[in-house]
Amino acid sequence: MKPLSDATILITGATDGLGKMTAERFAKQGARVLLHGRNKEKGTQVLEEIKQTTNNQNIAYFNGDFSSLSSVAELSEQIISNDERLDILINNVGIGGGPRSKDEREISQDGFELRWAVNYLAQVLLTKKLLPIINEGARIINIASVGQSPIDFDDLKMEKIMMGTWHTLEAN
């Protein structure tokens, strides 16, 4: 693995929490850091903040909404057109918890259960689309939370009612 000062690193969900902290640490070590977020105003603010606190100007921000697969595809195209290589991809975007009501099923812009779309489908799509610029020997790191519910492979769309989970109520 090359030194971090020579690496290009993409971190999704980099405008808050673990993603932001990770971006700051890599920027302090001189890496080229590509930040991702879904709120352009917040992303621009975090970009400037990290540049200022780390004295690293080799940082860029990319906007994209992981609840929309077309937005994720556009995001990958923007990254590919701006960078010729990736040495580390950190898939950090994720949403937890459930809908406000146990009777409510949240749907992504593409019609998938929202958590399934954001925490899995969008990350797989982004990774696949970025493969042409992911260097041999690169690292792909997927962040997941222990707080997430286990996957019911017999109900991937999360349409059934199950004890202790948040699924759609079926009309009888």
From TrEMBL:
It comes from the Bacteria. The keyword Oxidoreductase applies. Pfam families: adh_short. Keywords: Oxidoreductase. The keyword Oxidoreductase applies. It is an enzyme of class 1 (oxidoreductase). Its EC number is 1.-.-.-. One of its GO terms (molecular function) is oxidoreductase activity. This is Short-chain dehydrogenase/reductase. It comes from Tetragenococcus muriaticus 3MR10-3. The lineage of its organism: Bacteria, Bacillati, Bacillota, Bacilli, Lactobacillales.
